[in-house]
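Thread: Modeling a multi-component assembly for a lab meeting

Hi all, long-time lurker, first post. My supervisor asked me to bring a structural picture of a complex we are working on to next week's group meeting, and I have zero experience with this. I have the sequence lines for every component (472 residues in total). Could someone generate the structure of the whole assembly? Inputs are pasted exactly as I received them:
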Amino acid sequence: MMAFFVLLLLTSLAAQVLQPLVPPIAALHGARILLFPAVLAYGSLALPYPLVLALAFATGICWDLLTLQVVTLSAETAMRLSGPLVEISAGTHVMLFGVLCTIIHGLRPLFLRGRWELHVLVSGLSTAGLLVVEYLLISLKRRGFEMTPVIWWRIAAPAVGSMLLAPFVFGVFHLAAHLCGFPVREQPREREAHALRAI
Amino acid sequence: MTRAGLIALAVFLIAAGIILSLKPATQQRLAAALQASVAPVFTLGSNAKDKVTAYTTGVKKLEELERENADMKKENRRLQEAGLLLSGLEEENAKLRVALDFKQRSKFRLVPARVIARESGTWWHSLLIDRGEADGIVSDMPVLTDAGVVGKTTTVSARSATVLLIADENCKVAVTIEGAKEQGILSGARASENQELIIRFLPKSAEIKAGQKVHSSGVTGGVFPAGLLVGEVLEEPKASTLDAQVRVKPAVQLSQLENVFVIVPGKEAVVER
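Re: Modeling a multi-component assembly
Sure thing. I ran the full set together rather than chain by chain. Output:
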């Protein structure tokens, strides 16, 4: 199980580091496909809860630092007067990924019983959720909220992109889990417990 | 939830709380450390891309090369004529400097840098360059090309630096408009498709027309020196309740940047190699 967790963790971090190599798509109003949410969603569905939190923590802090924006909020000289300011504080994505992964993990029993389509659904929803929360946070910081078609595109297109990417991620990690000796399916003990609950 | 799950949740919340409580300067240092460790990956990727581009563009047709050659000969003649004119002006300028005991004002040097990566996030406009503290770069230094202003440096590591582009809403530049006495604050428009810029805080009475050039005004203690070309006015001002706003087209094609210069304070105006 640990080998599979390490594989998921490394893949998720590599997807974040390589994200700048994925250019925005002009035809989709500058939206870009995010690589890591489908991996994070798979981890949240497949792993036990403590490892889900570890995965959320590591990917959250990596994304926080990769996207950390040092800004001046009011005037060109503000930075010189008050030191650096950051738009979304480090730790915010850690908390956000923690919440998203916990919600997704709640669907694990269904996933282990063979509802593979759940992964596609939660990949899209978690991507949209991440982008919506990021947008709300920057709107709050910049003291102004606007919702234009471009913004809708930049939320919806990555979500659809993640959903399209999800079956590929699922196939690769399902095979990897099998090779690591951690088959992602309902164990006999879990099946019995589930049957008892049903009675 | 199992006991192990509860313990993991408690540890997670404590660790997240510690990170959330870090000071912005510490967060910036951590980001710089991560940037320094991943920059070699981007440099490798950028080198590979350059090699592919050089190979594909290097194979040109003979006719194209002949045409280019003829154009360059014409350009060469024009530059020779301009050179003659300039050498005369330079001589005259030197005499006037001596006469006025002129002290050189442009005390800066330009550090050339290559763009190795673009931003990771969806909502921000930034890029990563292959020069950092080792080249004398610190945060808050202007970045430009021969066409105009690109942005300013923010997070800097030993061999790389993040550049916040002028297309970002958070990059604010005090500007003046050619032929108008009004000043305004220019910044990017949020989620603009064409990376358009907006000048805000202009008086409602401002007489501005499309096509006028926009330059940095160089406020005291600011990041950008005066006189740098930022862009061109796209349309006449639109009045809001408090001020007038003008849309501006950036002078630099921000989505296709490959090489930039960072303005670093120095003893004289030179371009490093």
